[in-house]
Amino acid sequence: MFGTEFRPLDFDSVIGLDNIKDILSSALTKGMIDPAYLFVGSLSSGKTTLARIFARSILCQYRKENSSPCNECSSCLSFLKDRNPGYIEIDAANNSSKDKIQELFESLRYESVSNFRIVLFDECHNLSKEAKDALLKHTEDPIENVVFLFCTTEVDKMPGTLRSRCIEIQLNQPTEEDIYNKLVSICKSKSLNYDEDAIHNLARSSGRYYRFAENKLRAVSYLGDITVENVDKVSPVYMEQVCELLVMLSYDLPEALKISDFLISRVNVKVIYESILKVIVDAIKITTDITTGSPSYNASVKKVAQQYGSALYEMLTYIISKNRFTDVTMLQSDILVMHYKFLRDQFAPKNPVNNKQPVSEKEENKKPNRKTDAASSLNEIAHLPGWKKEDAVREIMRKKRSERKDGRVDEKFSDQCGPEVEEKTPQSSRRSISPEEFRKSLGGKANERKV
After folding, report:
1. 177-234 maps to CATH 1.10.8.60
2. Which region holds residue 189: left if phi is over 0, alpha if psi is between -120 and 50, else beta?
3. What is the sign, positive or negative, of the torsion defined by CA atoms of 119, 125, 128, 130?
4. Mean pLDDT estimate for the chain
5. Which one has a higher pLDDT value, 218 or 290?
6. Which end of the chain is more exposed for a tag (fewer CB within 10 A), N or C?
7. Is domain 2-170 given the CATH code 3.40.50.300 in the classification?
8. What pLDDT, on a 0 to 100 scale, did the predictor assign at position 112?
9. β partners of residue 121
10. If 0-12 CB within 10 Å is exposed, 13-18 middle and 19+ buried, where does residue 242 land?
């Protein structure tokens, strides 16, 4: 397994996490070793690996200039063979009882041949409440030259009182670029021929987890060279199809539904929603000259950005509220709704594209539209949201009807935009009359009736 074979053995071989490496190496250089450290991070972010490197550096007899372990002295060699008397690693899932913790502290009272004794608790959130309370008592009064290293993916399950007694080390999840660099280094070490697009696809399909990417690379290596075709056999990536789906969605509904049926037959619906979100985010990035992934993927994302324009933000808002669904019918319904929104121009880019053809087939230079002032106003409000656009269009049409002399045209616009409302005189501008004038007006009308 590449995940275990290429596990980092010193700080130099750890990709990324420069701030964490600086903190740990500075503590080793200055001899400021605290009694407890808490390594927090997501799955496969390198918590246990970094904690082991730190522990091996503490016990190392001949550290390197950057305080990394030499991996050649007797302490390092015995550590790598799990025989170092100064190091104890405990799987918290199988040793979570209070009695196990008590036995551990009894053994720590005896002297050791090494200067430090280090205890590493892997997945420490699995410890029982009694065991955590026992650890809290002993970390409050630390034993001399004993260092506790806690590793967890669920730091919220750790008591706040115990966390407050630890130096907390927060590990960030690796980026796709970090995973790409790690896979390239493995290919070079194993003399594997590889395509950059294939490595990018592996990094993208790994969910930003080192271990998953390394294991998938191992599986692809069974087939020979690391090519896009071999990667698709082991871990298919359909980001190109998702980009095509979004492009077709704005003007070719049958083709968009065909692509969605293909994706549904290959991957989980929730994965499709997440892929659509990623493409939209990458399309927004590419408008600011930020590229991610392979050149072919960037080209596909650029087409999406050109097709949607500023409507990418409205699409992003719409999909964010939908990506929690995993139902096939819900995805197909969303495709129909989004296509309908394009027809109604509710997803309105600042530079609207022709919905009859792809962006690549449009003419770059268009003649300026020299119509009436009302038509120019319609072009100016094309980028407004749907509800604001409707009010603006209604106002323009009302002014346009007032200028028309053809009653049939007025009737046509009245049917589409509603009846024209007569402006009423404000109450404050009406002239008040005296009671005498009011009675005279009534008297005149009464005389007219008598006659």
Report:
1. yes
2. alpha
3. positive
4. 77
5. 218
6. C
7. yes
8. 65
9. 90, 150
10. buried
